[in-house]
Predict the 3D structure of the following.
Amino acid sequence: MYLYYWYMRNQIGKKKADAPGAAKRDEKSMRLPPSERKRLAEHLNAPQEQRKDLRPEMRDSERRRKADERSDEQMEDDTSTPQGLAYSAIEALRKKDFESFTWDEVQDAKKLMAEMRWHLGMRPTRRKRPARRGSYPDMRRMVRRNLKYGAELLELTWRETKFKPRPLVIICDISGSMSLYSRLLLHFIHTISNGLLNVEAFVFGTRLTRITRQLRKRDVDDAVRDVSKTVQDWSGGTRIGDALHFFNQKWAKRVLGRGAVVLIISDGWDRGDASTLEAEMDRLQHSCHRLIWLNPLLGSPDYRPLTIGMKTALPYIDNFLPAHNLDSLINLGNLLATIDDSRPVRNAAARRKAVAAWSKGYSSQRNYHVPGQPQELPW
């Protein structure tokens, strides 16, 4: 048995040595860099008394060579990933307006968007879960645990409220006035749709189109391509009131349950009826937990709501934020993460007066907005 073992081991070794490409692999593994081969040749050709131990030098040379290879790999990674961008370059990219992006900056912005992590505020549910300390006694578990004591309640068990993330509904304007921002904002919607649960996405121009299914693709370019094929009114006119009316009629009952947060992305240019927009905004605000409006034009420090659509919608908005650069999207993420169970104070009459004063330019609060910072409305 012992001889058979060594015989089989020898045969297996021969097969590996005779395999095609084995000699090349051995030669490649034993190959030295040119500088070390030259030094080794000089060492072997020198007389015996002049030879010195080259092992420490060769080890140092090998260590330096590996360090250089690692630095080269890091430089290659730095040029291909957004983490490798210089800090000042990232800061400049985050503060730059989307409409002035070059093609390379658009690609870098896509990578930065893909790295964003989104968290939405939690909502209390009607269900309870076991807990060490809670506000509700768990009677079933309490009875089972105290059976060993003769049904005397010596050990108390409790339950607490179970929390789940809130649903998010995104309604984005893709009309002609938003053409400079719509592509990058669709990448943003794709990122947030893949980063959160229970996200419904819609786009509108003159009509409303649901794009939740198209955004389920992992590749953002394929998803945006499918969206552009599905939407029929891309870069056309804008009818915000009609689009919201269709949403309230068909989709509100399906997607606005369980304390949903609604995110509207539009510049406020509207060619529809202002009374329709006002009625639908009022209905939408009462149907959701929080109504947030993102306006790319709000990034300008001199912005004022001069359009009829924006004037009409502002009294029914809970948070009015910019969406013109990456910093504004990061601030939006910070706001979404802090949404709690409390609702903001809603007073449409007082807000109408503030909007009128702000639009005319003589309000003391017209310059309340700091670009890139999430701000509440000034009332």
Q: What stands out?
A: Residues 166-360 form a domain with the Rossmann fold fold (CATH 3.40.50.410).
